[in-house]
Specification:
- By secondary structure, the chain is of the alpha/beta class.
- Helices cover about 30% and strands about 25% of the residues.
- It is built from eleven helices and 15 strands.
- The strands form three sheets. Strands 3, 4, 5, 6, 7, 14 and 15 form a seven-stranded mixed β-sheet that branches.
- Strand 1 and strand 2 form a beta hairpin.
- Helix 3 crosses helix 10.
- The protein binds NADP nicotinamide-adenine-dinucleotide phosphate (NAP).
- The site of NADP nicotinamide-adenine-dinucleotide phosphate has 30 residues, from helix 1, helix 3, helix 4 and helix 9.
């Protein structure tokens, strides 16, 4: 099989693409021929040695895959050869073949092609977990999504729209703002200036979704109405913001943290139900994931650099 290999920690340039032995058929596991692998921030963090979990090189990065089952180990009842499946694998996804535990798989609805399916789990599960389970979002609420043209941002817009919210997006480029509007935002704010008055531009919101951090976070907090919730998703800007506690006190606001990955690991059956609900909604057309930008597996370095360089609208998928 062909696989991306990280032999030393560092920037995406340290990665090579190599031929290696195919995974063996093992009891309880299946082998999936990967048709697309989702590329996420976390993959770059693994390669740089900056994630909480630090695997020893050599290893193959890649946390999400979609493809077809080509072999089924003894004792696996969940799937058969030929099924279209997706899985979150943590590591090892940037490869043409992957060995996956039978219970880790989910079946892909016909409405999702492999690149959409491979980039679905992290962003959509984070969105539904954040909006409904953590932030208790109600239909009719107004939500400001920062980084609205990013992978998590577009999923947030789609899921919030599906749950009945009025979504306003903020993004730095025309292309990203157009993508946010196409995903269902009713308005899109240009976040490229250093100072953006979100309160004035939105007229006030019930929820702020922040996957970026940095200098816009504190200003966005001030846009919250009485009882508004500021939802901390991530720090794509590289800067963890210091939120002013007086602004949290005022108007009985809340700051809510979201760690979907940790929750999913410790709540296996609830995570499976969450993903199944989302896949059903995507299958019926109620959710409309945007097609990711595609790169051949051999261009893994370019794919990660495009993500890190803020050039990507939506998600990125590698095609083996
Ligand atoms: N808490 C959780 O459970 C959870 C789950 C999944 C992901 N996350 C985190 O959420 C964050 C966003 O993930 P994502 O997949 O949406 O990433 P993404 O697709 O790369 O989008 C992030 C957005 O951040 C903005 N940005 C601002 N400064 C940036 C910089 N210096 N470099 C890169 N982007 C910058 C960009 O929007 P503009 O150009 O419009 O500013 C970009 O579109 C990441 O930090 C990720 O680790 C958290």
């Amino acid at each position: 099989m062909r696989a991306v290999v990280c032999r030393e920690l560092g920037p995406p340039e340290v990665l090579s693409v190599e031929d290696g032995p195919d995974p063996l058929e093992v009891a309880g596991r299946v082998i999936v021929a990967v048709e697309a692998a989702g590329v996420n921030y976390v993959d770059a963090l693994f390669v740089a040695g900056r994630y909480q979990i630090k695997p020893e090189p050599p290893f193959t990065p890649g946390s999400e895959i979609a493809g077809r089952v080509v072999a089924v180990g003894e004792g696996v009842s969940e799937t058969s050869v030929g099924d279209r499946v997706l899985a979150s694998v943590g590591l090892g996804g940037f490869a043409s073949l992957v060995s996956v535990g039978g219970s880790q798989l989910a079946h892909i609805p016909d409405a999702l092609d492999a690149p959409r399916a491979a980039t679905f789990t992290q962003s959509y599960c984070t969105a539904l977990f954040a909006l409904r389970d953590r932030a208790r979002m109600r239909s009719g609420e107004r939500v400001l999504v920062l980084g609205g043209g990013g992978g998590v941002g577009l999923a947030m817009i789609d899921v919030a729209r599906w749950l009945g919210a009025e979504v306003i997006a903020a993004a730095s480029s025309v292309e990203k703002r157009e993508a946010a509007l196409a995903a269902g935002a009713v308005a899109a704010i240009d976040s490229s200036p250093d100072a953006v008055n979100f309160r004035e531009l939105t007229g006030g919101v019930d929820l702020v979704i922040d996957p970026i951090g940095g200098h816009h976070s504190g200003v966005a907090l001030r846009a919250l109405w009485e009882g508004g919730r500021f939802v901390v998703i991530g720090f794509a800007s590289g800067t963890i913001p210091m939120l002013p506690a007086n602004q949290v006190l005022l108007r009985n606001r809340e700051v809510i943290g979201v760690d979907w990955g940790a929750w999913a690991l410790s709540h296996g059956s609830q995570q499976a139900a969450l993903l199944s609900e989302l896949l059903d909604a995507a299958g019926s057309g109620a959710l409309r994931p945007v097609a990711p930008e595609r790169f051949p597996l051999d261009d893994v370095t370019a794919a990660l650099n495009a993500l890190l360089g803020r050039q990507v609208t939506g998600k990125v998928a590698l095609i083996p």
